[in-house]
Task: structure prediction
Amino acid sequence: MVYNQYRGDRVTIKEVSEQFGLTKDTLRYYEKIGLIGPIGKTSRGIRDFKEQDLKRIEFVKCMRSAGISIDVLIHYMQLFDSEDNTLEERRDLLINQRRILKKRIEDMTKALKRLDGKINMYDQQVLDQFLESGEK
Result:
């Protein structure tokens, strides 16, 4: 990921939105709920993203695409930002999320195989006979 491709170490919300494929509203929401930021602002009040902000956005986007909930991510970021030693708790949280994701992938793989089988039956023009027999 190229972080500071625009102007040295400063990036506007428009540029971040384009870079990560997130809406400006989503970025503002993520800041409001503590997933990113607080984002610094210029003297004119324009959000001024730094490299560390962009790294957090990339992490949040990746975790959201893996299906990790906003609440879990908020908890993780609170632990991350804590002055306490939370390494073990953060690690455990990520291990648990990995377990959940693996199960979801397993379930989706089974569903995909089932769909492929059904499509294959259509391709072979035997689905109607299969469904009429009462089998699933």
